[in-house]
Amino acid sequence: LHTIPYDIISDWMNQIVKDHPDLVTRVEYGKTYEKRTISLLKIGLNTEAKKKAIWMDCGIHAREWIAPAFCQYFVNQILQSYKTDAKMQEMMKNVDFYVTPVLNIDGYIYTWKDNTTRLWRKNRSLGPSPDCYGTDLNRNFDANWGTVGVSFNCSSNIFCGTNATSEPEAQAVTYFVGTRKDDFLCFLTIHSYGQLLLLPYGHPNYTASNYEELMKVGQDAAEAIKKVHGQNYRVGTSPDVLYPNSGSSRDWARMQGIPFSYTFELRDNGTFGFQLPEDQIQPACEEAYSGALHIITYAHNQIYSGAVAVTAVTLWTLLLAAGVTLM
Ligand SMILES: *[C@@H]1O[C@H](CO)[C@@H](O)[C@H](O)[C@H]1NC(C)=O
Ligand SMILES: *[C@@H]1O[C@H](CO)[C@@H](O)[C@H](O)[C@H]1NC(C)=O
Ligand SMILES: *[C@@H]1O[C@H](CO)[C@@H](O)[C@H](O)[C@H]1NC(C)=O
Ligand SMILES: *[C@@H]1O[C@H](CO)[C@@H](O)[C@H](O)[C@H]1NC(C)=O
Ligand SMILES: *[C@@H]1O[C@H](CO)[C@@H](O)[C@H](O)[C@H]1NC(C)=O
Ligand SMILES: *[C@@H]1O[C@H](CO)[C@@H](O)[C@H](O)[C@H]1NC(C)=O
Ligand SMILES: [Zn+2]
C-alpha cells in the first residue's frame, strides 16, 4: 500500500462506483474553501426499508496521511468481505456506510506540494489577518466551541476559527449528518497519530450519557486491534488520555444524539509520527479495520440482532392484551 495524492483518490472513488454499481454511489455534499467538491462513497444495498447509517471521515487534518489510506482500505475491505461474509451481507442490508476518504481536500493537496508543506494540519482559508492561513477544522464544530484546547490566534495550529462552523468543510459535515442524525448509529473520524480510541467529550466538565458503554465497546475494539499485530491502543476521553479540546466533530456528533462516536488516532505512537513509513500502512490499516468493525458490528447488533424475536414477543403481548386467542 502507498499513500496517494488526491486526484488519484478521486479516480479511485469513481472506479469503486464503476466496479460495484449495485452497492456504491458517490455523493457530493459540499465545497472546500478553495472550491473543490467534497464527496463521499455511500455503500449499501438498495432496499425498500429505511436504513440506519454509519459515518466515517478521513483526512480532516491534512498531514495525517495514514487516515485517507485507511478509508480506502476500509471501503475495499467491506466490499470484499460482502462477497463471502454473511454478517457483512446482513449489515449492508440494514445500514448504509458513508465514507469520506479526504475531508480537508485543500489541506491534503497542500501537504503534497513540497517538503516545507508536508506537516500542514489545518485547512487553507485565509485568516482574519494577512499571512495567516487555516482553521483547525477539528476545533471548528459547534460543540462547546472555543472553550478549551483551542487558540484564537490564527497562526496557531489549533485556531478554532472566528465562529463555530465558520469553515465550509465543517459546514458540509454539519449539514449532511445533521439533517440525517437520527439515522446514524456510528460516527467514526480517523486521525493519526498516537494509537488511541477517543470518546466524547473533549471538554473535561461534560460526560457522555453512555460513557460506560462507549468505554466498554472501545476497550473491546482495542483488544480486537491488539489481536491483529500486537499493537496497544489506549481508550478514553480526550482529556483522560490526550488533552482537553472543544469543537471536535466527534463531540458534535455525540451531542446530535449519535450514540457511538469515536476518534481513531492510528499508528504510530510517536516514533515516526505523521510520516509513517510505507511498510506500516498495511498493518496499521489491518488492525484499525478490526477495531472499527467491532464498533460498527456492536452498534448494528444493538438495533438489528434479535429484532425478529422481539417483534414476535411484542406481537404476542399485543394480541394477549387485545384478548385475542391464538389456536
Ligand atoms: C525533501 O525531502 C527529501 C527526502 O527527505 C530530500 O531528499 C530533499 O532534499 C528535500 N528537499 C528539500 C527542498 O528540503
Ligand atoms: C479554512 O479556514 C478559513 C478561516 O481561517 C475559512 O474561512 C475557510 O473556509 C476554511 N477552509 C479552507 C478549506 O480553507
Ligand atoms: C500567534 O501565534 C504565532 C505562532 O505561534 C506567534 O508567533 C504569535 O506571536 C502569536 N500572536 C499572539 C498575539 O500571541
Ligand atoms: C459569529 O457568531 C456571533 C455570535 O453568534 C455573531 O454575532 C457573529 O455575527 C458571527 N460572525 C460570523 C462571521 O458569522
Ligand atoms: C470546569 O468546571 C470548573 C468548576 O466549575 C471550572 O472551574 C472550570 O473552569 C471548568 N473547566 C472548563 C474547561 O471550563
Ligand atoms: C511505542 O511503541 C514501541 C513498541 O511497542 C515501544 O517500544 C515504545 O516505547 C513506544 N513509544 C511510546 C512513546 O510510547
Ligand atoms: Zn488529527
From TrEMBL:
Membrane-spanning intervals of the chain: 303-326
An annotated GO BP: proteolysis
Active site annotation, chain numbering: 265
Record carries keyword Membrane: yes
Domain Peptidase M14: residue ranges: 2-299
Pfam family, one: Peptidase_M14
GO CC annotations, alphabetized: extracellular space
Cofactor(s) of this protein: Zn(2+)
InterPro entries with a match to the protein in the record: CARBOXYPEPT_ZN_1, Peptidase_M14
Sorted UniProt keywords: Carboxypeptidase, Hydrolase, Membrane, Metal-binding, Metalloprotease, Protease, Transmembrane, Transmembrane helix, Zinc
Keyword RNA-binding: no
An example Gene Ontology molecular-function term: zinc ion binding
Family: Belongs to the peptidase M14 family.
Name of the molecule in the record: Carboxypeptidase O
Organism: Kryptolebias marmoratus (Mangrove killifish)
